[in-house]
């Protein structure tokens, strides 16, 4: 139903200054007119802001291509157009100062690596911009400044700035960029704009002191009070900064300095969206360092059906004079990466997993044994970034250590390999803090159901274990994590069977014996092969002593070709196509015919969640442990529902 309402891009034009959000006007009404405050309408209420945000998401949805993902003609499609978009958005010279860390790899692993890297650099005292994909609930999750997703106001400010410029300049020969390319350009705009504002305002702030340094104390106090009111009352236009330096300018400078000096982007960590060579993030020509996480079979319909082909696409982010660090790889993939590095004459470092003992008793912020591989790569990337930017010595001085690399690595250059083993294995406190505080929703995440918490003294009777794994390798990793988490949970329950445990989790006061039922909540995209995915998940769980009592298959609420801040289940009048879910059910039943596991198909996710809650309510002495996996879209939909 909604497909008919999206259609082509709306013919709306939005004009706004930094810090100002403008309501839409038709393109005819603004054609040829200079920008002025008469064309602006400030958004003051949360409801208006949300409505404006939804309009932006409708425009964003119009950029999603309708071609199937299996159409390999998408690969490299008009890549050179990206540089034209950079010119339109004045971003050509703005990217290099961002000190970019560019990371590719198989989904899940590369996101974790980027998250660890950002957290480490931020813990070292630097301002960070992080661009990742996909998002789970809200598109703003893809853009993080200092570890926090950007506000609706900031998103709208930069979104309409980019949208209007591109709408004005694009044509048949230069069409609007597609969905992901627009988001990547938007990320560069956000991160570079914050840095430009800081650079300008740091200098202009001096003029403020020239204006007020000799002001009597009583006048200065009054001025500060007035200043506070002005900041709350008005949005200052950036153009006025450059025209004059009177008292009004000083107020504007101080306001903007307060707002943006804490948002200077020292490092931009950019995660590749798909592949590498032709990815939109690969417009970065001079990154500080490149990284590739562990590679696996994913997006094969686009990247190729062998690890050599996939590695070749990922190695497309390598640049001359830019070192590359990679996680351990299968031999065939590593050989391809080495070849690509040799052609460019750059060193290729293969980083070993992080030694858990270096964390001094702390745990990684992202759960799972596989995360030590991602953490090791993140430490390498962060260390090189600190070295290249001249900041490593400050960390070493503070920690009183001379060597930071806490691992061994292979260094490949021009087909000559040598093992470099560093003896002093010391991890600075900032690194430990960054690794232990890293957070990434929807990956190895455990959430007790809030509704059941409110209804029952036993607040662990329904728990969701969420992981967006969607490839054979990642589903094996997911199964191992789930098995480990269940063992840890069982051990915790044995220590605290009644009442509240030290960490605040509830016990089971009415029963000394509690049964646990493991339930699978699964969906995957139709381009994936369930005959490959489900056996990897099931067999790994069985090897680790986990047997699913029931499997539930549901369609996603969110849809691939529409961006929204919320997702709605289908109405009764809508016909839901469950043919794919029935296919998944048949595959599962064939796998589990001897295991005694049953299965269900629900027409919507809310109905499945409702059934789980009712079952948990009826069986108060049973703990329902639900593994949600197979699709990041599914994980995002579950998060959206259980967080309401």
Automatic annotation (TrEMBL):
GO terms for biological process: one-carbon metabolic process. Its cofactor is a monovalent cation. GO terms for cellular component: cytosol; mitochondrion. It catalyses: (6S)-5,6,7,8-tetrahydrofolyl-(gamma-L-Glu)(n) + L-glutamate + ATP = (6S)-5,6,7,8-tetrahydrofolyl-(gamma-L-Glu)(n+1) + ADP + phosphate + H(+). PROSITE patterns: FOLYLPOLYGLU_SYNT_2 (PS01012). InterPro entries: Folylpolyglutamate_synth, Folylpolyglutamate_synth_CS, Mur-like_cat_sf, Mur_ligase_C_dom_sf. Its EC number is 6.3.2.17. Belongs to the folylpolyglutamate synthase family. This is Folylpolyglutamate synthase. It comes from Zingiber officinale (Ginger).
